[in-house]
Write a structure and sequence with these properties.
This protein is an alpha+beta fold. The chain is 62% helix and 14% strand. The termini are far apart. Bound molecules: 2-acetamido-2-deoxy-beta-D-glucopyranose (NAG).
Length: 477
């Protein structure tokens, strides 16, 4: 019975859809292409089927050619030029039959375009006959509309790179070889953190992308880049706030950041062969290798200065750490500010994808670490390291891999996901504060805190300083 009912229901829906669709398709008299004016076609003057414009209040022009028009039938008609997506560009141009010349006739001239939004769209031409028959040009021409000001992007890239280097220098300075050795001797937690960051998160991004962004490969790829990017210094700060295991956090960040340089090309190669086969990608492997070397050098420099100039280093890093923390917040603000245009690209699907990635990453990595018998604080730290998402690295990657318009269209994914992951941390922090859970109840962490103090007074100072500076910032907010 039930089955029959569903069958009838789906049939009904089908009929309704058909009823609505038919008048839409046949509302205008669809001419057989070629009947009125032969096999006419359009092209840009000078060949090529792409034209780049920038967003502007002024009218811009593209040079269009309508060619191979057969005027022998004697029927009256005119041509109209249209833009594929009126949200991106407006075109109003009418070409009368009398403006055509030659045999076979052609028209050549400028078509005014009012650009409105960046992105990709098309130009096509219709032939309207006086009896209301409409023919559409057999081919569409591509119109690329880019944003105008690119200067702040350059500034952004340089500042972000400089900051990243500074953070790694700082990490190198904080990294204690003894502590690193201690963690490496029991590498379970670090290994879990590595696997959740570089296996779980990318797989999640692929799965979530399939659910929400399957129609847009670029967005899917942007989500993937976001999941793959190492969390960076922000995760350490979150670990301090949420009373996680700070040592583990720093160790995981360092190892993940270093490993990312090997993992990134590996994943991208795998994906380009499997999922994103028809995405045009220009992965900057050379640039990636260059940044890898720079980061390793920065870490090494930090560690060396710590060994050879301990006094000076501790003094510098004491100020560098809160400075870095502030800078990383400034960097987020700057990224959001400069790329504010990207929020126009936000859709419900993108929001959902950006929401589910950090949340499911957090829950799953917490569950996995708990299953593998990590302490509560370690599990918390691992899930923070996994789910706090970085926006700078994926943005730089997108700008490298895509042409500027495609990059602009996808930037919203890392920005949204990173903001949501940050909001999630704030929510977790608030909940823990309200219920009084934000305490060091973990024996292990306590031990590592003691270790922290005995190993190095200066780290404790740094941690406290950054803690205080964040308190201040919070109260200002
Ligand atoms: C010509 O045809 C196009 C496409 O169907 C239509 O949008 C446009 O309104 C028509 N122009 C006139 C003047 O009827």
């Amino acid at each position: 019975m039930k089955q029959v009912a569903t069958l009838n229901c789906s049939r009904l829906i089908f009929m309704v859809v058909i009823c609505f669709a038919i008048p839409k398709c046949y509302g205008e008299v669809q001419g057989q292409y070629g009947e009125i004016a032969g096999a006419w076609d359009i092209t840009y003057q000078g060949g090529g089927n792409e034209q780049l414009l920038t967003i502007s209040k002024d009218i811009q022009y593209v040079n269009l050619v309508i060619l191979n028009v057969d005027l022998t039938s004697g029927e009256d008609f005119h041509f109209e030029v249209h833009a594929g997506d009126p949200k991106l560009a407006l075109i109003e141009k009418r070409i009368e039959r009398s403006e055509l010349a030659g045999a076979p006739a052609s028209w050549q001239g400028q078509v005014p375009v009012q650009t409105r939004h960046f992105g990709f769209t098309t130009i096509y031409v219709t032939l309207n006959s006086s009896d209301g028959v409409v023919e559409r040009s057999p081919s569409d021409l591509t119109l690329i509309i880019a944003r105008k000001d690119r200067l702040d992007e350059k500034i952004f890239t340089y500042t972000a790179s400089a900051l990243l280097l500074l953070m790694f220098l700082n990490l190198g300075g904080v990294l204690d070889l003894e502590r690193l050795k201690a963690i490496m001797l029991r590498p379970i937690a670090v290994t879990i953190g590595f696997c959740t960051s570089y296996i779980l998160m990318p797989l999640l991004a692929i799965a979530i992308g399939y659910c929400f962004l399957s129609k847009h490969q670029e967005l899917h790829l942007a989500l993937f880049f976001t999941a793959l990017s190492p969390s960076g210094g922000l995760a350490n700060i979150c670990a301090i706030f949420l009373k996680g295991n700070v040592n583990l956090s720093i160790a995981t960040t360092t190892i993940n950041s270093l490993m990312s340089l090997a993992i990134f090309p590996l994943w991208i190669l795998i994906l380009m062969r499997t999922i994103f086969t028809n995405t045009e990608l220009d992965v900057p492997f050379l640039d990636l290798a260059g940044s890898a070397t720079a980061l390793v050098c920065a870490i090494a420099l930090g560690m060396l200065s710590r060994v050879f100039l301990p006094k000076t280093t501790s003094l510098i890093f004491r100020f560098l750490k809160p400075f870095c923390a502030c800078l990383s917040l400034c960097l987020i603000a700057m990224t959001v500010g400069i790329n504010a245009f990207a929020f126009k690209e936000l859709t419900g699907m993108i929001f959902l994808a950006a929401l589910f990635l950090p949340i499911s990453g957090y829950i799953l990595s917490y569950g996995i670490s708990k299953l593998l018998r990590c302490s509560a604080a370690d599990a918390l730290t691992i899930s923070i390291e996994t789910s706090v998402l970085n926006m700078t690295v994926p943005i730089m990657l997108l700008q490298h891999c895509f042409d500027e318009v495609r990059a602009d269209m996808t930037l919203i994914v890392p920005i949204m996901a990173a903001l949501i992951s940050l909001a999630m941390m704030i929510v977790i922090y608030t909940i823990r504060r309200i219920f009084g859970w934000n305490k060091n109840i973990d024996g292990d962490v306590f031990a590592s805190k003691v270790e922290l103090v005995s190993f190095d007074e200066n780290i404790k100072a740094e941690v406290t300083v950054s803690h205080i500076s964040f308190r201040n910032e919070k109260s200002e907010l």
